[in-house]
Amino acid sequence: MDYLPFTRPTLDEETIQGVVDVLRSGWLASGPQVAAFEQALSSYVGGRAVRSFTSATGALEVALQACGIGPGDEVITPALSFAATANVILRVGAKPVFVDVDLATRNLDCNLIEQKITPRTRAILPVHFAGLPVDMDALYDLARKHKLRVIEDAAHAIGSHWQGKKIGSFGDIVSFSFHPNKNMTSLEGGALSFANADELPRIDQLRFHGIVRGAEGAMDVVVAGGKYNLTDVAARVGLGQLKQLDGFNAQRRALAAYYFEHFHTDPPCLLPARGDAGHSWHMFAPLLPLDTIKISRHDFIQKMHARGIGVGVHYPALHLFSLYRALGYSTGDFPNAERIGRETVTLPLFPAMSLADVERVCVAAAQILRDAKK
Q1: Known catalytic membership, residue 374
Q2: What CATH number is given for 13-239 in this structure?
Q3: Cβ atoms 203, 228 nearer than 8 A
Q4: For residues 165 and 352, what is the distance between their CA atoms, to the nearest angstrom?
Q5: Partners of 77 in the beta sheet?
Q6: 321, exposed or middle or buried, with CB in 10 Å at 0-12, 13-18, 19+?
Q7: Which of 83, 186, 326, 373 has the CB geometry, 3.0–4.6 Å to 234, for a possible disulfide?
Q8: What is the pLDDT of residues 138-184, one digit of tens each?
Q9: Annotated active-site residue in 182, 243, 294, 373
Q10: Which class in CATH covers the domain with range 245-372?
Q11: pTM value?
């Protein structure tokens, strides 16, 4: 049977031809396509100020810098995410203060945030895990109470909704990712959406070498900015993808619903929280019943691969990486993040999949776990 990866981008011929047109235009770096992409993204999130970046990682780092966060500051973030979420905090000189996540939603447990707030806390950096929004009411109530900035890592959540409002259309600063494994792609890339358009000049400086332009084209450098500007080639891909995003997400929701109907194993796996219609289903990641089977997660993944089915792991617990153990974190600090990190597997979920593909995954997983039952 054809190999079924755990994710795959969908690129239509119009977008591919559009990239060819950009290549032939001779304008490859940031230009008219980037401007059009940023305008389209702004319209998508209700007219908010938007800037694009070469990656969501770069976008998060610039957002922290724009908020004035640096050495001596603390930023609260979940103990379960991709390494970039915490790495950017270290890169600006601040300390990531981890909080455990909910076992079902995999999101930052807002009930645990307040006890981690100190006089050095400057911001909260939550993650909308797998496209399921964090409890935004609880999150922003805490931020207002303690006068903290909120920088949302919405890498998984382009097109997600909270109480009918799109993620990125409200809140403080919101970061999106357009990596090829995300719900839409620009090959590589990211974006920031801002509540306060007055922050744009600072963002523009940090995004491109700290340069400001004066009268008659005079140039000055006012801050040691980086270089995170998107290319026109990438932006043209993003434009094509954004037009299809709502359709992509609708298909993801249908596939996830089919998983919930058909993914039944003995011994049972712990399935992720279902959420509601606002969930954009970036991925479907159950927890394996490792205590009641005779094989390891690695063995399970290899057996799925042998059946032509790709499986990922999203994610190991952040605080157990060497970099963060060196800051004093250790095993046992965040039990839910650690359990998820040990047991999670990411099953195939992308718009080009069929319901038959989902059924194939469900049958294979059920057979493997049945045969491995203690």
Answers
A1: no
A2: 3.40.640.10
A3: no
A4: 27
A5: 98
A6: middle
A7: 186
A8: 999 999 999 999 999 999 999 999 999 999 999 999 999 999 999 99
A9: 182
A10: alpha beta
A11: 0.97
